[in-house]
Amino acid sequence: MQFDDVIDRSSTFAFKWEKYKGTDIIPMWVADTEFSSPQPIIDALHERVSHGLFGYTLPSQYTPANDAVVRWLKDKHDWHIQADWIVWTPGVVPAFNVACKAYCQEGDAVMVQTPNYPPLRAAAGINKLTRIEIDTIEQNGRWTLDFKQLAEQAQRPECKLFIVCNPMNPVGSVLSEEDLAEVARICAENDVTLCSDEIHCDLILDESKRHLPAGNIKGLEQRSVTLMAASKTFNIAGLGTSFAIIPDAKLRKQFIAATQGFVPWANVMGLVATEVAFTQCDEWHQQLLDYLRQNLAYIEQQVEQIDGLRMLKVDATYLAWIDASGLGVENPQKYFEDKGVGPSPGVDFGNKQFVRINFGCPKSMLKEAFARLK
Ligand SMILES: Cc1ncc(COP(=O)(O)O)c(C=O)c1O
Fold it and tell me: What's the 173 CA to ligand 1 centre distance in angstroms?
């Protein structure tokens, strides 16, 4: 089983591994996986490298990558897009910051859920806008958005944009059809644009759930920007390539205008990798999901056995949001690190009593981490 292979990344300056270099702490923080990318991606990159010329490539002219996105969204998410709705970006983080610039002006406010991926929490402030936090609440054993709060806050006249993260990082929930209908209703009633970060959308682990792209929801087609990438699923985040799907021509024009002058084109290697990921790796993708499902089942079982730890159901992602408040320690991150496990500190996401564990790793690594914790 290729996902069982333990691959030494120490010579590659991987961000995840640099943090704990020289210590005996297993890094389980940054959201990339310990898995090698599928062989067809590696082969295609080799082939591209062997060509030897790496000049400018305008992503919209690289038709195979655009066709691959159209194919993937149709087959995997039942979303029939037109290729010219795609705007390539060198990452999802720049893309949601571009959305802030494109759709807001000084004095405006942006809604964003809490807890959340730190750069999503930072985006409003970076763009000199007010951040309105929307709570994530526990409902029937899973995390979801506080829709009452969303409806109230959206009414504020300065509120122009809602940046949603779906599937949700760090909590791992997937918004349902009803949830998204409610988001659509609230956005329409208050003339709020939706920017939907869906970078984890190809990592649905609960087989009874489906990912529903924002731009394919009735009422959101003309008021949304959907951000996606092959990066998380196929472990190619270092290749700096993602894309926005913007069906509405005016929103698309505003978005592109806001990129001018400082957002570079997506990386040519990332375009090659995305093309191959979305055309030749369906079987690998399926195997990855099966592997992650087993890891999730293991982690759920282990967390249940450790007094003081608790987690809710994870629908998607390879991230477990673990409530460590029951441990009764001041600093859960330090508690984990003292035991030789390095999660992401919950405080960075907005709740210091939690930690986030990345379970996109070989089972042996996961087992070692929990043996240490126990
Ligand atoms: C929700 C979310 N959005 C964006 C990113 C990063 O996107 P990119 O590397 O494409 O800028 C991450 C990475 O962890 C993420 O979890």
Answer: 16
